[in-house]
Automatic annotation (TrEMBL):
It comes from Streptomyces spectabilis. Residues 3-343 form the FAD-binding domain. It comes from the Bacteria. This is p-hydroxybenzoate 3-monooxygenase. Its EC number is 1.14.13.2. Keywords: FAD, Flavoprotein, Monooxygenase, Oxidoreductase. InterPro entries: FAD-bd (IPR002938), FAD/NAD-bd_sf (IPR036188), RIFMO-like (IPR050641). It holds the Pfam family FAD_binding_3. NCBIfam families: PRK08243.1. GO terms for molecular function: 4-hydroxybenzoate 3-monooxygenase activity; FAD binding. The keyword Cytoplasm does not apply. The keyword Flavoprotein applies.
């Protein structure tokens, strides 16, 4: 096949990009390895920043989330020094999150795209981007039945995540990867249970971190820190709930509403950034460009922001021959990415102390407690937190 822009991956990054390109009449195609149903069933992120909602609204892609999402603006910290709450919509820039499951957002974006006549090939895996810095860029693909194929393109957008063909096709001499392993592992859980508190809960405990994040009235996400290398099914449901009770200090602060655990994902907290995010005709966006630890829930938000920047750059270039956006894309994204990385890293340290660090355990835990104490007591620290927590 042939298209002006071949988009790899139908996650938030790829689908926002494809919708914006299509709206301006750019000839594009999305190649997605998964089939349609598994794409719509993949539960991941849920917290959308105000800026993300604005971007989606600006382009008419927000009806679903405005109708079915709900705003959220409180987080509660529970530690050995007690508990406190921050209503971040009254701090910093005064913005809340919108809670909307990522798979619903993906389903909406897909509906918009296909309703507008967008081309998408499911069950089509990109295997490599070829000749990205030459005259004849293309993408080699393999269908689910194993049939090979080729798409010629003027531009290729690698929105195919951390293990995708976009990343793999970058030559080591042109693009470098900077990596940080936070040395912490979370077991991510989805429970068939209503939320247990009307806030995001972050619990710091000597047995490790535990987190509570609302998703819908029937489904709640929990995180429980475990040792690196723990298999997802190592703990029984009962052990998980007992551990969550203990770390969230349910005895003191109220019981958790238990339910069947319907999904488990082991998440090693890692971050990386590629520099630059472009090699010739190939551009990276979303997790393909930078992986970010889920501690501050920035991944999907960065993906949407980068997709909008990339769409503008490609539209300017393809419709007016204006290449300024294309030239500056990488630097502009990296600016956002490093700021988000810095904040996520700060959150990892706030929530883990010695369990994530390398060095004297008492020293690291004392720093963690001091950081939490500043957040509890200092209004300016709270404003800073709110601004960075909801912002991208
Ligand atoms: P995605 O969503 O991974 O989509 C990539 C798509 O590319 C397809 N693909 C390929 N297609 C063709 N050829 C290939 N070779 C391909 N290889 C892959 C895949 O099937 C997929 O459809 O990347 P994108 O668009 O960059 O979006 C990034 C976000 O998905 C990610 O950053 C977030 O989910 C991260 N994240 C969170 N982010 C938030 O902003 N808020 C949160 O609350 C939040 N919670 C989370 C998270 C990530 C989690 N996991 C699973 C690491 C919670 C968890 C547990």
């Amino acid at each position: 096949g042939v298209a002006d822009v071949v988009v790899l991956g139908a996650g938030p990054a790829g689908l926002v990009l494809a919708n914006l390109l299509l709206a301006r009449g750019i000839d594009c195609v999305v190649l997605e390895r998964a089939d349609r149903d598994s794409l719509r069933a993949r539960a991941r992120a849920g917290f959308l920043a105000a800026n993300t909602v604005r971007i989606l609204e600006r382009h008419g892609l927000a009806d679903g989330l405005l109708r079915r999402g709900h705003t959220h603006s409180t987080c509660e910290f529970r530690t050995e020094d007690g508990r406190f709450r921050l209503d971040y919509s009254t701090l910093g820039q005064g913005e809340p999150h919108t809670v909307y499951p990522q798979q619903d957002l993906v389903a909406d974006l897909l509906t918009y795209y296909q309703a507008a006549g967008g081309r998408i090939r499911f069950g089509t895996e990109a295997t490599a981007v070829l000749d990205a810095d030459g005259d004849d860029p293309s993408v080699s693909v393999r269908t689910a039945e194993g049939r090979p194929g080729r798409w010629r393109a003027r531009y290729v957008a690698g929105c195919d995540g951390r293990h995708g063909a976009g990343r793999r096709s970058l030559p080591g001499h042109a693009v470098r990867r900077f990596h940080r392993d936070h040395r912490v592992t979370w077991l991510g859980l989805l429970a068939e249970a209503p939320p247990s508190l009307d806030a995001v809960g972050y619990a710091v405990h000597e047995r490790g971190f535990a987190g509570h994040m609302a998703r819908t009235s029937e489904i709640t996400r929990y995180y429980v820190q475990c040792e690196r290398g723990t298999p997802a099914d190592a703990w029984s449901q009962e052990r998980i709930w007992d551990e969550l009770d203990l770390r969230m200090r349910a005895k003191e602060y109220g019981p958790l509403r238990r339910g069947r655990i319907v999904q488990r994902t082991v998440v090693d907290l890692e971050s990386d950034v590629l520099e630059p995010l472009r090699h010739g005709a190939l551009f990276l966006a979303g997790d393909a460009a930078s992986l970010i630890s889920p501690s501050a829930a920035k991944g999907a938000n960065l993906a949407v922001l980068e997709a909008e920047l990339l769409a503008r750059a490609l539209i300017d270039d393809l419709t007016r021959g204006d290449s300024i956006g294309v030239e500056s894309y990488s630097a502009r994204c990296l600016d956002h990415i490093w700021r988000a990385q810095e904040f996520s890293h700060w959150m990892v340290e706030l929530l883990h102390g010695a369990s994530g660090g390398d060095g004297d355990a008492h020293f690291l835990n004392s720093m963690r407690r001091s950081r939490m104490a500043s957040l509890r007591t200092s209004r300016s620290q709270q404003d800073w937190f709110a601004e960075r927590y909801v912002g991208v």
